Amino acid sequence: MAPRPIVKLLRLARFPILQQLQLEEALLRATKCNWFLVNDGTPRHSIVMGISGRVNELINVQQAQKQQLQVIKRFTGGGTVVVDHNTVFTSLIMQEGALQGLECYPVPIMRWTESFYMDVFRKHGEFKLQEHDYVFGEHKFGGNAQAITNKRWLHHTSFLWDFDPANMAALQQPAKQPSYRQGREHGSFLMRLQERLPSRQQFVQELQDNADQHFELREVSLQEASQALQRQYLKNNKVIDLAAHVQQPQQ
């Protein structure tokens, strides 16, 4: 049996999503360690877009402004999500070769994460990876995005413990969407984990316990992890000024 890789564990709660993304990018690009991050909620309602997302195609700009939603373009690909204090975040950051037999390519990594999280979710329903989403049956509760660079990879997830339908109204129906969605609106496409899992505290603990079964975990402080932010590396996270994307009515 292959030895378990050493992975640094960072546990956070109500840590701002922008700062989390900035930290993740630093850990990916400026360290050689393996990491597992868990953040139990972000204090500010925010929209987070993939690096190639176009604001006016994905966001109802006026609605987002009305709701004072912060809009962030993250350093990874993937779709657009609304996050808040009811979102639980995880991030896996690994060195190529840390997991024996896993190829450092998008599809194998995505498939491996399905097996990684299987023990957390299968007792609560028909859990599976559907295209790039985690679902119970045909209802999405987890959105994923990835980055691969310099023989390192990152896979991060936003889990919907709960969500506010009013905030979801700030998102447009994307032109490109998974086939299993079948054009459904957010309200009928998404589901809340609180509808299936017994408690949020238990869920967060099970995420850590599950990681402990796969890795040799070594917990670190935010102060220690944040040292990576002082190093030189490419920085691709940015906050979007929605005012620059307001479309003027035609005369």
Main CATH class: Alpha Beta
- Compute the number of strand runs: 12
Query: Residue-averaged pLDDT, rounded?
Result: 94
Helical content stands at 25-40%
Strand/helix succession:
EHEEHHEEEHEEEEHHHEHE
Separation, N- and C-terminal Cα atoms: 70 Å
CATH structural fold name = BirA Bifunctional Protein, domain 2
Number of individual domains: 1
Strand composition percent: 25-35%
CATH homologous superfamily assignment: Bira Bifunctional Protein, Domain 2
| CATH architecture assignment | 2-Layer Sandwich
Pfam family, one: LplA-B_cat
Domain BPL/LPL catalytic: 28-215
Protein name: BPL/LPL catalytic domain-containing protein
Q: Please, could you describe this protein's structure?
A:
The longest helix has 16 residues, at 106-121. The protein has a single domain (6-232), classed as BirA Bifunctional Protein, domain 2, CATH 3.30.930. An eight-stranded mixed β-sheet has the order 7-8-9-10-6-2-1-11, sandwiched between helices. A four-stranded mixed β-sheet has the order 5-3-4-12, with no helix packed on it. α4 packs across α7 (200-214). The protein has eight helices and twelve strands. β1 (6-13), α1 and β2 (35-40) form a beta-alpha-beta unit. The chain has 251 residues and is an alpha+beta fold. It comes from Tetradesmus obliquus (Green alga). InterPro entries: aa-tRNA-synth_II/BPL/LPL, BPL_LPL_catalytic, Lipoate-ligase_2_inactive. Residues 28-215 form the BPL/LPL catalytic domain. This is BPL/LPL catalytic domain-containing protein.
